Amino acid sequence: MSFRIDPRLPLTGEVRRILAEEIGKALAHLDAASSRPEQALHKCRRRLKNVRALLRLVRSGDETFCDTENQCYRNVAGLLAGPREATALIETIDRLAASFPKESAGDELGVVRDRLVAHQQELHEGSGLEAAVGAATAACEDGLKRIESLTLPDQPEQAADVLADGARATLRRARKALDKAGSRGEANDFHDLRKAAKTHGMHLSLLGRLWPTPIKARRKAVDQLGERLGELHDVLVMRALLDSGERPLGSPEDKKLLGKLLKRSEKNLKKTCLAEATELFGDSPKRSTRKLARKARHDLAPSPEDASAAAS
């Protein structure tokens, strides 16, 4: 099965199915974390993001369930954040070296990278990772058992409104974050924009059979923006770590070059991200999702009770 809502089937069953599949895959990645933590934890967190995006999409249909479960999986992802951030910092150094080959021709970035790799290995080999994976596994297993308590409206008109409400809320978050990122440009503004863009991309996947406009090009553009915003986030995290001085990253000369390249990368990425986000989220969220609601009302399957009534 796929990470996509089938409009031919009742909404409650489809959402339960996707939740179970994504949480099951997250558990499989957690099981593999002891042998290959770097890849497994990253993949697990991606599955958890899928789960949370789906919960946001259908929130208005069962707010209590969705809010509770969203917080649960947010906490689970937080348990695994440290090891993933350690890997992301190493990837940031590699991207800086690729983007600025002349400036990084010396060994300054290599020294910083070696220290980051050593820190990553400490996290992977320590007892804290095993405890975090154990706690995350238990939480996901409990979450699987709660899925059957989710109940959403299955009548086409009401189900369509639920999906449109969720999609609209995320587009509004993206528009608000874009406005703040353009006017203030603070790290938190771009972080909020990144989260909203990522969630919108997942909503496009979930609504692939219902979204009213050609979806392929938009999906590609949203995914590209998400990647750039992710790179910007990593640059900003690295800058904050460098400025705080809480972890030794190298000599003053090593850190001076790193700070210089981070500032240049940040400037370039912010400019590109703002331009791309304006293209994607400049339209009115209400206007964008009004068409979605109309199409969904037409395409969604009637509930079993409605279908039986119509047949008789």
From TrEMBL:
Ranges of residues in domain CHAD: 8-286
PROSITE patterns (UniProt xref): CHAD
Record Gene3D superfamilies: CHAD domain
Ranges annotated as biased composition (Low complexity): 301-312
Sequence ranges of Basic residues compositional bias: 287-297
SMART domains to which the protein is assigned, alphabetical: CHAD (SM00880)
Region (Disordered): 284-312
Domain of life: Bacteria
Pfam families in UniProt: CHAD
Protein name: CHAD domain-containing protein
Organism the protein comes from: Mesorhizobium qingshengii
